[in-house]
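Now for one specimen:
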Amino acid sequence: MTLDLLFLNDVHGYLEPHAELFYNNEKEYLEEVGGYARIASLIKELRQNNSNTLLFDGGDTFHGTLALVESKGEALIPILNKFDFQAMVGHWDFGYGPEQLKSILSQFNYPMLGINVFRTDGTLFLKPYTMFSVAEIKVGVMGICSNIIDKTMPKHFSEGLNITSGLDELPHYIEKMRNEGAHLIILLSHNGFPQDVHILNQVDGVDVCLSAHTLNRLYESIVVNNTIVIQSGCHGSFLGHLRLDIQDKEIKSHVYDLRKMDDEIQPDKEIAELVSNAMKTYEESKKKVVGATNHILHRYNTLNSSMDDFLLSAIRHVSNTRIAFSNGWRYGVPIAKGDITEMDLYNIIPMNPVVSTVELTGKEIKEMLEENLERTFSSNPLDQMGGYIKRCVGLRVNLRIENPKNHRIQEIYFDDKHLELDTYYKVSYVTSQGVPPNIGRNRVDMDIHAVEAMKQFLVSHPLSERSSTKAFNLV
């Protein structure tokens, strides 16, 4: 028999078609892709071609755009319930707190799975696994939610919860599902591609891993310890299609296709109408021009980001500081050359947090950045707990990625001089992921939020190529 596995991950609330970044051997460029209506249309076509089809969501689904943040994830409920997903896992989906997540999940017609999410009394917060019968085979699916939810995310994400990597729990559930008759075992994971490869090299018995979190565009599947692994980019720009040839209840071969959701796919009318209803409130914001840029703004580079350079330059501008920090968020679609709309600004930072200032010593700045570099580039994948590198403007940091923990930074320059470790520097930032709450002095929340700061900045600062500061540099 042929079994088709369809997989979305890290859509981050992008309901409609949007700009997406692509590359050739000369430059970066944008195409309009994505949108749940196109995704639904392709899924419908693939299901018509093969009734033996299972559909999964890798998480980071309920958070990432203004429509999702303002509705605390609920804007997606009528849309996703039309898709007939089999299961999902999560990360930013915990962003409104565990109780709101439970409320959302109670309204869906499929479960979120998690063998690694525990209440403080040791009981599981989520269903650990589920089983499906497809033709003559029995499929067991287990979920691992992101292991950083209770470690690097804001505290309200994980109130009353403890989250593990899933490494210790995985063998137990593999055995349990095999004992219940599973011929095929699927791991649905939001730990990240490096983390999944690390875990799968230590644990036997998983047939397929649907990986998420790190936004890898795997144009070809890989095989790790006899496990087929795929990951399908982000923002709904792609749909992963893994076709398994199963004989004698075992996988004999497979074919993988990363399908781009471009305009060759006709949108599904029913889903398009539901999306239109969900986005109706935001039509004015999508049309309201607040500035312009003469180059693509995006945050897809690990070290530096033109999009976050803009965000942090605006934060410095309104706070009258010279150094600014934010988290290295991966999500947020690019902004094309030309007009910048109000909705573009919310796509950069949909939570629209308050701008804050704090005084940090040079020593605290260096230690904060070293910790972040370790969380990004640790030689142990399970210690990689960041997104991209923490974003910064106002400093030049020369670093060596290959160096050991706490020794990656070679130099930090401020005003063409080395940062002085015993000197206090007033810095600005957004969110506790920009500057952790346990360091610094004289912390102040300003009376201005990030989106308004960017609007004010654009009035007097046209965005040009020279806006890019490239704070982090490999030496």
